[in-house]
Amino acid sequence: xxxxxxxxxxxxxxxxxxxxxxxxxxxNQLSQVLTYFETLARADLPPAANVAQVIEESALRADIPGxxxxxxxxxxxxPASRDGQISVPxxxxxxx
Amino acid sequence: MSDALHLxxxxxxxxxxxxxxxxxxxxxxxxxxxxxxLNSKVGAFTYLSESDVIAQAEASDERRKxxxxxxSLDGIxxxxxxxxxxxxxxxxxxxxxxxxxxxxYDAHVIEALRAAGAIIYGRLNMxxxxxxxxxxxxxxxxxxNPWDLARIPGGSSGGSAAALAAGxxxxxxxxxxxxxxxxxxxHCGVVGLKPTYGLxxxxxxxxxxxxLDQIGPMARSIDDCELLLNALASPDARDMTCFDQGQRTLLxxxxxxxxxxxxxxxxxxxxxxxxxxxxxxxxIDFYRAQGATxxxxxxxxxxLAVPTYYxxxxxxxSSNLARYDGVRYGHRSxxxxxxxxxxxLSRSEGFGPEVKRRILLGTxxxxxxxxxxxxxxxxxxxxxxxxxHLAALEKVxxxxxxxxxxxxxxAGEKIxxxxxxxxxxxxxxxxxxAGLPALSVPCGKSQHLPxxxxxxxxxxxxxxxxxxxxVFEASHPYRHQQAPL
Lengths: 96, 485
Fold this sequence. Notes:
- The complex is a heterodimer.
- By secondary structure, chain A is mostly helical.
- Chain A has a domain at about 1-45: Glu-tRNAGln amidotransferase C subunit, N-terminal domain (Histone, subunit A, Orthogonal Bundle).
- Chain A contains four helices and two strands, in the order H-H-H-H-E-E.
- Chain A has a two-stranded antiparallel ribbon with strand order 1-2.
- In chain A, strand 1 and strand 2 form a beta hairpin.
- The two termini of chain A are about 45 Å apart.
- In chain B, helix 2 (about 25-40) packs antiparallel against helix 3 (about 50-65) and helix 9 crosses helix 12 (about 370-395).
- An eleven-stranded mixed sheet of chain B has the order 1-3-2-4-6-5-10-11-9-7-8, sandwiched between helices.
- The chains are: A mainly alpha, B alpha/beta.
- The interface between A and B is large, with 54 and 78 residues.
């Protein structure tokens, strides 16, 4: 099992900015954990995974509109809002 | 001391409330005094509104006066782990990410408790986003084990277990993804149940690993655990994994002399502390003396459980926690000038080290080139673990092991070694991977520290597990022992 990983690539995928100390620490700890995971690579396993749910039932409910949180409740917990809408940093540049 | 209100079980409280010898208000006032005197030592609660719980108690007393009592839980306090939504109260998950979040709605289990008249009593500390086994990963505060304040209470529902052991409250809710109810229950000498996957709705539980997460009851006695379970387990269309009415009939209990109890071969040989092994053997001997049949069972893939769990759980966590992007709720970095910076900086500032570690691990096991080697293999191992457990549970009613290999360790002892901490959950993880009900029952001491045994049963066998442990409890009245606070 391959255990090499690129901490910068992972941090980018996970949208995390890591300090140099964090990178060194997590690389070291994750290597240890991945070494421990090698028992999985050696194991004799069934060819395909069944969904590991004990009682399998289709539990999709009917798509019926119901009550949900109102605009006020949603904007109240948002980090920033204006005129009943959640505001975020500019997404599209003026030029584009 | 037997009359001290903080030591009463919920069942005893219900009897006194019914008889008119106790009011909910008097009970809550006594518990609040204990909270004021001792919570700073134990650190179980992160939030408690005294005026709110007194108002709830008065409303309960008023209902009772008018003959409109809602259930046997009416007027009885239930404390809530801080990852279960209560409208108008903080929902922090013990994370800086959600430090300022006030929940705009009630979880299904909270609606159920309110409908039963229970008092929703305060928020309990936990490992950040339920990731940990010692509650030391909380970004808010430390929680200590009431049996020894130098030690951890277990985790991630460490606040729940510590609050029960400290006599702050008779009942508490926890959540369990890999042992987060049962491991702290064992370390604090209380009862903790992880129900069958699907029995209790997770609507309003902050998601960690959705194929594993369950809410469950924690209490100081088996009767209380069952009382709380009954109030929580009901259908809910808002959680698609939650059983419909027709799917949730629990298997009937079995008399102890008819019980078949499975012991995994060699379970006490490796890595189990001497006194934990002795307490487990004593429990096995007790059941044998009661006429139960003790059978060795084979679970050859047990060694795969911990790695399988940490692949599946971190993969799901990396996906579930992608929602914390600083947009709709939770922490937003004040440094961000672009949307990508907003996401990256908010997450980097808001998450603690263990959460970052697990997100990175989960991202890795799902990433291109590695998903087949890790995530897909883990799913295959999970299938194998499930089928081995179901095969064993064809032959026996339940499987008995220790809950945790060793008693509660000292605060700070393992914080820098994630792998050592992951091994705390070696006996509890398989029940999550297989979706099976599992119960931790106090069964003795290792020196001065509580030890629990662990029962796992077939799907929907909660009543069997509770009945079997009730027989043990009746002969081992640990509940009347008090943590030396």
